[in-house]
């Protein structure tokens, strides 16, 4: 019997099935700027209507949150996580997401699983007025076990050069506003899985995996709304490393983000993780978002306008002078 690619563990037909299952949904994310569809060697996106455009790009994955999705066979939200991790990052600089590409790797491709993951990306792209213009599905037997998947993405956005948000406007007296997270988002899951090894145990009346798999919140809509009326001095996406590691990335030397942790609305699932894992509070703040998915820094005179524009936002601190860039009280 002669060897074939299929006998080596790669089923091209399953790949074709995946494309068939996602093709029409992906096309719904396209706009007049997308110049070709699925199937070309490269994807084309035309840029127009900007005076001095700057492209802002970001890439990320889902991490070991994927393990919970695979073990519970719940794949619909993971694609949202993948897109959100990339799009929320570039949003910190005021960038509007233009297009997104995905990378899906596995040991043995199941077109139903792959399609469900990508359709999550499609829904997230639609929410952000972003085009899903390409991707790669890699079937890699021997590298991944059958049933294993890895998911990553790449997002490109655009912003006018004179509207870039980089933290340089942040000054003493500015207010720090928190935008709530939807849960753990996509960070800290190696520790989460250690604390909650049984994904089917009951938590607040439902299997705990439902709480753990709530997708990363997409912040484009609220931030875009805010940018219409408020001069935002800085934005930080609170991902791995929590407030402790991410807020200092936008703070200049000599300034400090002084945050009152008693004001932070910590989700019950994180309080449960803290208790079960016997984790110190500062370790929690240095690992998880603790209920704050994004931080916005504005002039103290504009803080009220932010809170009126975004009903679920709330103030957690202010910018002070200090040699340390962050101080959690």
UniProtKB/TrEMBL annotation:
<keyword id="KW-0963">Cytoplasm</keyword>
<dbReference type="InterPro" id="IPR016188">
    <property type="entry name" value="PurM-like_N"/>
</dbReference>
<comment type="similarity">
    <text>Belongs to the AIR synthase family.</text>
</comment>
<dbReference type="InterPro" id="IPR036921">
    <property type="entry name" value="PurM-like_N_sf"/>
</dbReference>
<dbReference type="Pfam" id="PF02769">
    <property type="entry name" value="AIRS_C"/>
</dbReference>
<keyword id="KW-0547">Nucleotide-binding</keyword>
<keyword id="KW-0436">Ligase</keyword>
<comment type="pathway">
    <text>Purine metabolism; IMP biosynthesis via de novo pathway; 5-amino-1-(5-phospho-D-ribosyl)imidazole from N(2)-formyl-N(1)-(5-phospho-D-ribosyl)glycinamide: step 2/2.</text>
</comment>
<keyword id="KW-0658">Purine biosynthesis</keyword>
<dbReference type="InterPro" id="IPR010918">
    <property type="entry name" value="PurM-like_C_dom"/>
</dbReference>
<protein>
    <recommendedName>
        <fullName>Phosphoribosylformylglycinamidine cyclo-ligase</fullName>
        <ecNumber>6.3.3.1</ecNumber>
    </recommendedName>
</protein>
<dbReference type="InterPro" id="IPR036676">
    <property type="entry name" value="PurM-like_C_sf"/>
</dbReference>
<dbReference type="InterPro" id="IPR004733">
    <property type="entry name" value="PurM_cligase"/>
</dbReference>
<dbReference type="Pfam" id="PF00586">
    <property type="entry name" value="AIRS"/>
</dbReference>
<keyword id="KW-0067">ATP-binding</keyword>
<feature type="domain" description="PurM-like C-terminal">
    <location>
        <begin position="171"/>
        <end position="323"/>
    </location>
</feature>
<feature type="domain" description="PurM-like N-terminal">
    <location>
        <begin position="54"/>
        <end position="159"/>
    </location>
</feature>
């Amino acid at each position: 019997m002669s060897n074939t690619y299929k006998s080596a563990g790669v089923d091209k037909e399953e790949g074709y099935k995946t494309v068939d299952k996602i093709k029409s949904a992906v096309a719904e994310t396209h706009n007049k700027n997308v110049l070709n569809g699925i199937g070309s060697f490269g994807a084309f996106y035309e840029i127009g209507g900007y005076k001095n455009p700057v492209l802002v790009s970001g890439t990320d994955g889902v991490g070991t949150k994927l393990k919970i999705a695979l073990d519970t066979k719940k794949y619909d939200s993971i694609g949202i996580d993948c897109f959100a991790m990339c799009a929320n990052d570039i949003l910190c600089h005021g960038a509007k997401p233009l297009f997104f590409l995905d990378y899906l790797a596995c040991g043995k491709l199941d077109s139903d699983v792959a399609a469900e993951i990508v359709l999550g990306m499609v829904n997230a792209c639609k929410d952000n007025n972003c085009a899903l213009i390409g991707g790669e599905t890699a079937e890699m037997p021997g590298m991944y076990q059958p049933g294993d998947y890895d998911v990553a993405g790449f997002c490109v956005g655009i912003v006018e050069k004179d509207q870039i948000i980089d933290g340089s406007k942040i000054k003493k007296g500015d207010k720090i506003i928190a935008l709530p997270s939807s849960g753990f988002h996509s960070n800290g899951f190696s520790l989460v899985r250690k604390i909650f090894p049984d994904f089917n145990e009951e938590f607040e009346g439902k299997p705990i995996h439902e709480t753990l798999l709530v997708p990363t919140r997409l912040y484009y809509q609220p931030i875009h709304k805010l940018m219409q009326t408020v001069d935002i001095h800085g934005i930080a996406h609170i991902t791995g490393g929590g407030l402790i590691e991410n807020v200092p990335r936008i703070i200049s030397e000599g300034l400090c983000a002084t945050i009152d942790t008693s004001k932070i609305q910590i989700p019950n699932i994180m309080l449960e993780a803290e208790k079960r894992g016997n984790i110190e509070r500062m370790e929690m703040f240095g690992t998880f978002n603790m209920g704050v998915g994004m931080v916005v820094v504005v002039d103290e005179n504009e803080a009220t306008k932010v809170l009126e524009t975004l009903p679920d936002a709330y103030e957690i601190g202010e910018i002070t002078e200090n040699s340390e860039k962050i101080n959690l009280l």
